[in-house]
TrEMBL record:
PROSITE patterns: HTH_ASNC_1, HTH_ASNC_2. SMART domains: HTH_ASNC (SM00344). The keyword Transcription applies. This is Transcriptional regulator, AsnC family. Keywords: DNA-binding, Transcription, Transcription regulation. Residues 1-66 form the HTH asnC-type domain.
Length: 139
């Protein structure tokens, strides 16, 4: 990955619906060269997908609760399945594999306690978590 790839990713993170021609104008490449680079980033797994985030699902940066959840997976659950599940959940900002008593540390932002409860239930019912420990960020 080079500086142009990084520039492409930066623009797509702000506006994933941008046309290849406009993206190319912003980064200084032709439409065809830009499209080829985006497809290469998709094919190599750097870009894994695009999604629509609804206003009701995406709290503003200062609103809602920010939390960190330690997650222990069901031993029968594959890590890749859990990571794929996390990519579909808009409230999940990041999920990292860690050492210690838990398998993952998940960074989230939710609208409030009801949304946190729904996410934790889904994490156990759909994501394969057997144990969780949640810590709220105070600042």
């Amino acid at each position: 990955m080079d500086d142009l790839d990084s520039a492409i990713i930066g623009v797509l993170q702000v506006n994933a619906r941008i046309s290849f021609s406009e993206l190319g104008r912003q980064i200084g490449l032709s439409t065809n060269a830009t499209a080829a680079r985006v497809r290469r980033l998709e094919h190599s797994g750097v870009i894994t997908g695009y999604r629509a985030v609804l206003g009701s699902d995406a709290p503003l940066a200062e609103d809602g609760l920010e939390a960190f959840i330690d997650v222990r997976l069901d031993p029968a659950r594959k890590s890749e399945e859990f990571l794929e599940w996390t990519r579909r959940i808009t409230e999940i900002r990041d999920a990292v594999h860690v050492t210690g008593a838990y398998d993952y540390l998940v960074h989230i932002r939710v609208a409030g306690t009801a949304a946190l409860d729904r996410l934790l239930r889904s994490m156990k019912n759909d994501g394969g978590a057997t144990h969780t420990q949640t810590r709220l960020a105070l600042r």
